[in-house]
Amino acid sequence: MPSSVVYAAIAVALVVVALLVSRALSSSSRPLVAKAVRTLRSYSMEEIGKHNVESDVWIVIKYGAEARVYDITEYCDMHPGGDVIYDSAGRDATEKFNGPQHPPTVHDLIREYHIGWVEGCAPASVTMPSDGGGAGEKEKKEKKEH
After folding, report:
1. DSSP label at 96?
2. d(CA 118, CA 45)
3. pLDDT in tens for each of the 146 residues of the chain?
4. Backbone dihedral region of 116: left (phi > 0), alpha (psi from -120 to 50 degrees) or beta?
5. Which residue, 28, 57, 86, 99, is the most exposed by fewest CB within 10 angstroms?
6. Are 45 and 118 in contact (CB under 8 A)?
7. How far is the C-alpha of 113 from the C-alpha of 100, rounded, in Å?
8. Quick one: CA dihedral 12, 14, 15, 16, positive or negative?
9. Do the beta carbons of residue 72 and residue 114 sit within 8 Å?
10. pTM of the model
11. Closest listed residue to residue 94, CA positions, set 58, 67, 56
12. Where are the beta strands (DSSP E) in the chain?
């Protein structure tokens, strides 16, 4: 193998190692902040519709008869597609979310933003509190699974 190829391979390996070390150092130097545990509950489409500005973005994504509500406000600035994410703010984003531009891993990414379900569209395994507050045992179990 020519020495220039060996040197190039070593250079690439060093860059990769430097990037990994840099990433590890930058993430370990950030203070650990515990995320607040959200209580899953049901929301009316009217209430969801009020969360339609850049500083407060909720979306609905349907999975069959289940319609989940997500507060994606924190994620919007990181969205690789830019401001197009705001087009679905406060409404059903299912069609755009399932578009060809998103990899299958997008379903894993969005789980942490799940805040509840559209009224009447929660899965049968979840018992919604009658007053809209607090989490039932089945509801807590559902949250852990996501």
Report:
1. H
2. 7
3. 567 766 666 666 555 555 555 556 655 444 555 556 668 999 999 999 999 999 999 999 999 999 999 999 999 999 988 999 999 999 999 999 998 898 889 989 999 999 999 999 988 776 655 444 444 434 444 444 44
4. left
5. 28
6. yes
7. 21
8. positive
9. no
10. 0.63
11. 67
12. 41-43, 52-53, 56-63, 66-71, 91-92, 114-118
Closest CA to 4 of 86, 131, 47, 12: 12
User: What are the φ/ψ torsions at residue 119 (nearest 5 degrees)?
Assistant: -50, 130
Q: 């949250």: which residue's tokens?
A: 143
Tokens at residue 71, please? 């507060």
Nearest to 53 by CA among 84, 90, 18: 90
d(CA 78, CA 142): 27
For 137, phi and psi rounded to 5 degrees? -60, -45
If you ran DSSP here, which 8-state letter would residue 84 be given? G
What CATH homologous superfamily does 41-145 map to?
Cytochrome b5-like heme/steroid binding domain (3.10.120.10)
C-alpha 43: how far from chain center: 18
